[in-house]
Amino acid sequence: MLAGAVLLGLLDRPLGLNLLDPMRGVLVFALLGLGLNVVTGFTGLLHLGMAAFMAIGAYAFAISTCDIYPFQIGFWPALGVTAVAGALAGFLLGAPTLGLRGDYLAIVTLGFGEIVQDVMKNLDAITKGTQGINPLPAPSLPVVGEFATDERPWYWLFLVLLVLAVKLCRNLERSRTGRAWLAVREDQLAASCMGITPIPVKMYAVATGAALAALAGGLWASLYQSTGEPGNYDFQISILALCIVIVGGMGSIDGVLVGALAMIGVANIALPKLASWMQAQGIVNPSNVLGSPNNWKYLVFGVVLMVMMRVRPDGLLPARLERAGGGS
Amino acid sequence: MRPLHHLLALAPLALTAFAAAAADDAPAVASGGVLGQQLVTGLSNGMIIALIAIGYTMVYGIIELINFAHGDLCTLGSFLALTVAGALGMEVWSGVGGLAGVILLLVTAATFCAALNWSIDRVVYRPLRSAPKLTLLVSAIGCSFVLVNLSLFWGGLPMQVFGGGVAAAAPKDFPALVPDNSLLPDAWNLNFTTSDLLVWCVTLPLMVALTVLVRSTRLGKAMRAVAQNPTAASLMGINVDRVIGATFVIGGALGGFASVIYALYNNTISFQMGYRTGMDAFTAAVLGGIGSMPGAVVGGLLIGVVRALSDGYIEARWTNSVVFAILIATLVFRPSGLLGAKLRDKV
Amino acid sequence: MKIVSSLPRTGSANAQTTSMVNGIRMALDEVSGAIDGVKIQYEDMDDASPQRGNWDPAVEAQNANKAVRDESVIGYIGTYNSGASKISMPILNTAGLVMISPGNTYPGLTKPGMGEANEPRIYRPSGKINYFRVVPTDDLQGRVAAEWAKELGVKTAYLLDDRELYGKGIADVFEKRAKEIGVTVLGREGIDPKASNYKALANKIKASGADLVYFGGTTQTNAGQIAKDLRSADVEAKFMVPDGCFEQAFIEAAGAANLNGKTYITFGGLPADQLSGRGAEFRKAYIAKFGAEPEAYALYGYEAGRVLLEAVKRAKTKTRADILQAVAETKDFDGALGRWGFDENGDTTSRVMSGQTVENGAFRFAKVLGGAESAPPTSAPGTVPGE
């Protein structure tokens, strides 16, 4: 998969594919998916509030770098701040959820997502509310290219960061912590009998997942040079992250990457291209609600989800544990 | 760890309260005698939420699925009601005939939603009975997207419903088939309208009927058995798939009733109305203890009242946060919801 | 050559943007789809995504990048939401592609000192202006709304906004002006646009006894529902809304009975049936082609399309730079909204504002707002509306 991504990066310009632009979105959401994968995939905690961490990351990044505020610490330190802010948020927002079972946890995390969104919108003295914070600086690296005008350096940067994140996740998966996570997911009672204390294990999972999600948020904001409005980090983002993880294969890192490609690819690449093509062919009939391809987007997206789940209930690239015939 | 953990859990509630207080720069409005009115509003809204919440909780109780598509199912029910009302030329309240019309809408929408819900279960969820829970969840999400789009199409079809209104995506006015005047004497200074009365008159009997169904009938017993342990239930000779199908039918019917009541109470429907309503209803179901029907009712009423009081006495822009903060606080002290079974993770 | 538009076509804004696109197509039809023998294509791009149901920053940025990379694109008509423009403006500015918005009203996009400290400089990384708009900004509309309220005899007002960039912005302007001219603001609330009803809020407003309720928002952010719930709670106050609600869908959503006689709508420009000259011709042609009155946004879309095409005609060569130059030099443009030009910030010089009421389920022109400086333009040649 890495080879494919590198090839795409090199060949996009010469072949005129123009795919790097939307692919950047795929990479950012893959990062978000990795974060959710740690929480839900590895540890089995259904989390419906990843958007909150993404928002916290984006705003932490923005407040650290935008020239409206006194900090202005620059791109790379800000990324560090973002990750730390995410981890901190993970600890704070994870704490109340420790005693909760499955779907109660889900609704609480959903609640946090809404609360964070409201806080961002309403405390507009700090967060500038629905105006969003802008502009945000782009990174500058000597050799790679000009970030302001070219989408390729962004692509390479995101790819590198994603690869690092994947490495991190794989290492965690194989480490004692990772195995503790899997144990808690499979059977918490048995795990605690084996000497694994679930509370710190779960906290660590949420903090890591939150840090990754926050990083995704910071990169997202940096890419568009604005946090955008808080409404952009709503429940739909959390749902999208969940779909990426489940469609790709819960607990499987490769699965998350494929899931991100599938979900964002359909929504941001395939559908607009189809709509453009239909317009060019003159098939579009704007006076009839059925005749405009834009009105079919929800339907197509929903059908794709249902079909994928029917055809591959364990995900496109299920984790090896699932494929071996086990199942939760 | 527990006291600290409880303390940490109250942090979001405290944060919300602090933020609301700090950000409250609007001048205070005298709100003495309005409390009663807010309660009336809150309870009526709460009943509608409760009715939809029962649909969520029933399906969850039996197959542990958070049926994200339920809110959007109700949306379709409302659109059907609007179409039927338009086709029959129902525009305003017209006495007893009007009552018959409303009953017709209720029955039609309930039947439609029940049938649709059953079909969805048959086509989408049944093949996935042995799949992981989260696969079902994502399917439900996909289903909700499809239903939303269907509502969008429905809204755009060239039906001549009250002013044409073929703008597919715009919210649609639902005719005020129930009069809007207050039923209480003016001296009380309380606005309890026929819409409020309708909400109560439809939802209460439905809830009673449902309770009777679940407690006393064979189907009800079968539902409870399947909810407790599907394998054992099937060993006892219960056709699990049929019982699940019946649950979807009943849940769908309730959703259908709720959709008409919602439309009559709010007088507006739109293709995205399932989002907030669904979220409120699901929150209510969890608040009351997911799987518990009285819990869903209590949760729904509570959320309705909390919303009204928050809008009235705090600030409308914090209402969503207040609702969730209360949910979180409740779950911290009662992890299975208000009336849920005591099943705490052995941590 | 190609023109593109980037508007939210998926979701609830579809109604307005459809009429905008109709307007753009009509402008194109007027020149028969070609200028100086070169065919002009038009692509109607969507900046919304299904999962958001609204404009999506990722999609908007994608549209902007796509337009920049496509050599045949010489003009970008967009956006509808001011927040979306913030994303695409820097991209298009760096590429020197002209951008004309038929609907952004947030002042900070063009006017220094109106938004954040660093606006609008941050939208012009190249230092030159490439962004223009055909609609007057909220700082004007909010002001005249407050003044009109005072004229109507309003002494106390309760303000609501939808917490979005447009709605909150215009409500802020209204609040500021209202306080300056002696209208007491009894309360200010931000609503949840997705709520099912606002009855509790209406109860609160009733208890406050305000003369007027002002809602900064659009039909999509539930203006209709607010109107309904105010009436069902027996709130006697007048209801005033900005041009985001100036469309038939608003009357349909609210229910005519809830609006008749008590509702006031401001609009940056004159409504279609009050136009003369080009505007009246546009209206006739629109009715002939689409069988309905053009909505406010159809007019904006048409105007944006026309001013772009005029500039293409005038440009020395058909390159982006020359077309941009020609647009910037637009003065005394004979448009459907009157005679106007672009000022040094890229804003329209047209200051005409109008107020509408709702009678019998339809909008009715009430008056021109804003005083002498906003006198309606005549279509006599050589007359330029006041600065």
Plain-language structure description:
The complex is a heterotrimer of chains A (328), B (347) and C (387). In chain A, 70% of the residues lie in helices and 0% in strands. By secondary structure, chain A is mainly alpha-helical. In chain A, helix 2 packs across helix 11, helix 4 runs antiparallel to helix 10 (198-224) and helix 8 (176-186) crosses helix 10. Chain B is mainly α and 347 residues long. In chain B, strands 1-2 form a two-stranded antiparallel ribbon. In chain B, helix 3 runs parallel beside helix 5 (133-156). The longest helix of chain B is centred in the N-terminal third of the chain and has 31 residues, at 95-125. Chain C is of the alpha/beta class. Chain C folds into two domains: 2-136 and 273-340, Response regulator (Rossmann fold); 138-267 and 352-374, Response regulator (Rossmann fold, 3-Layer(aba) Sandwich), CATH 3.40.50. In chain C, 38% of the residues lie in helices and 21% in strands. Chain C has helices at residues 14-30, 57-69, 82-95, 138-151, 165-181, 199-208, 223-232, 248-254, 256-259, 278-290, 296-314, 320-328; strands at residues 2-7, 34-35, 38-39, 41-46, 48-49, 54-55, 73-78, 99-101, 131-133, 156-161, 184-190, 212-216, 238-241, 263-267, 333-335, 338-340, 353-359, 362-369. In chain C, the strands form five sheets. A seven-stranded mixed sheet of chain C has the order 11-10-12-13-14-17-18. Chain C has a five-stranded parallel sheet with strand order 4-1-7-8-9, sandwiched between helices. In chain C, a hairpin with a 4-residue loop joins strand 5 (48-49) and strand 6 (54-55). The chains are: A mainly alpha (328), B mainly alpha (347), C alpha/beta (387).
